[in-house]
Amino acid sequence: MLTHDTWTKSSYSGGGQGDACVEIAHLHPRIAIRDSKDHTRAPLSVPTEAFSALVRSLKRDAER
Hints:
By secondary structure, the chain is α+β, with helices and mostly antiparallel strands. It has one helix at about 50-64; strands spanning about 10, 20-25, 30-35, 45. Strands 1-2-3-4 form a 4-stranded antiparallel sheet. Strand 3 (about 30-35) and strand 4 form a beta hairpin. The radius of gyration is 12 Å and the shape is flat.
């Protein structure tokens, strides 16, 4: 079950009150992703490995 405490806000939160970001929840073996501004929408759920590959790719791109 997803509760308020389950979600972790991105360390890159920005804008106004820090709510312009995404939040993730670790739901082994998946990662749930949601918009921090709209908790009423269903979160996106992806396999942990796919999420890890996405984060690695984004970090590589940011280093360029």
